[in-house]
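Researcher: Checking consistency across runs. Here is inositol-polyphosphate 5-phosphatase again:
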Amino acid sequence: MSRVQKCPNNVIVLLYFQYFWGNDSYELKRILKITVFVFILIYMQELYCFYHFYSSIESSSEMADFDRVCVYVDSHFKAVDSFTALGSMYFIHKSLKNIQQYDFNVNEFKAVSGHNKYVGSLEGVTSMEKEKFPKNFWPDYIAYSICCIILETQRNTFKWSRKGYMRTRWLIHNQGLDLVNVHLFHDASNLIACNSSPSVYSANRKKALRYVINRISESSYSPLPFFLFGDFNFRLDTLSLVQNLSMSAEIQKVKKDSSNEVEKIIYEEKDNDHKVLLHIETKLFAYLHQAVFRENNGKELLKYDKETSAFHDVITEEEIHFPPSYPYSEDYTKPTQYMNTRCPAWCDRILMSHSARDIIHRREEDENGVVYDTLGSNICMGDHKPVFLFFPMKTITH
C-alpha cells in the first residue's frame, strides 16, 4: 500500500471485490484518508454483506465530499434466467463537474445528480445493461442436454449458475468509456483441469469473454474505450505447471473401486522418505512448497498465466506485481496463506482495451502514478483478495 501513499492526486480508482468481507470497508477508508480521488468505482460479484459495506462507506467521513452516487445491485435471485449477483457502485466527488452517464434506452448521455440506488431485478433500469450468459455456454450444459434427449426427460432441472456481465457507460470531461463487470466460469475439478493444456474450462472462459467483448463492441452503440474487471476465473496452465512442479516425483493415480475413473493423483518425492509433494483431487490441490506462489509475488509462475493471450488483439493489462489473488485462507490468523482447494491463480483482474490504455495519463517523473495491486495483502479479506487500479485520466477539451 506504500505505492498508494505516494500518489496524492489520482483521478479514478477501480476496485473489484468478489464479495464483501469484514475488513473491506476498513481498508478502503484507509486508502481514502491518504489520497484524493474524484471518481470511485466499486464492483462486486457476490452480494454477501453488501448492505453493511455500503452503509459503512456511504456514511463515513471519508465520503462526505462525494455528492453523487449510483448503485446497481442485481439481487433478484428468483429471476433464474437473468440473475447475475453482480453489483456496481459509483461515487462522484463534488469537484468533478463534467461527468455524464449514458441512457441505453434513449441513446444519449445525461447529467448525473443525487443518490440513485437500484437494488433488485434491475428490469427497466436504463442507465446500465446486464446479461447472463446463454445456457449453452455452461461447461456441463451440452452433456446434460444430450442425456435429457437420450432419457426423454425435460431440461428444466439444469443448475444454471450466475455468470454474466454488467455494463455502464460514462462521459468524463468529454472522454467516453465503458465500465464492465464480468464474472466467468470456474474450474469445477482440479483433476479435469490438469488433463489437457489448455484445459476445457479455459476454452469455456475464452468463449464467454469473446462474447462479452463482441457485445460491448457491436455497432448498436458507438464503440468506446472499455475496462473489464471481475473474477475472470483465469487459472494457470495446470497441466504444464504440475509437470514442472513434479519433474522429479513418482506419480500414483488412485482410481475408484467401481470404475476406471481417477479420483486422486499423488506425487511423491523419490527420496526424502517419499514425502508427498503434491496431492490433487477434484477439490484439493495440496502442494508441499506453497511459498513458491508468494515468493517475489509469484513472478516465476506468470509464464503459466496464459488465458489473456488469446485476446491481445483487443485487450491489455497493467503489469502484475502482486501474488495470485485466489484462493486465500479465510482464517483470520492466516491472511497470506492459500487454501489447499485450488491451484493459486490470478483470477481477479482489471483488463482494458488498447484505446482505454491510451487514455491513462502517465507521467515519466511519477512512476507510481498508475497503481495495479491487491487490497489487504496482510489481513484476511476472504478467499479472493480485492484488486484495484487507479490512475489519472486524460481528458478532451472542446
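Researcher: Does this match what you'd expect to see?
Model: One thing to look at in this run: Residues 2-234+291-391 form a domain with the Deoxyribonuclease I; Chain A fold (CATH 3.60.10.10).
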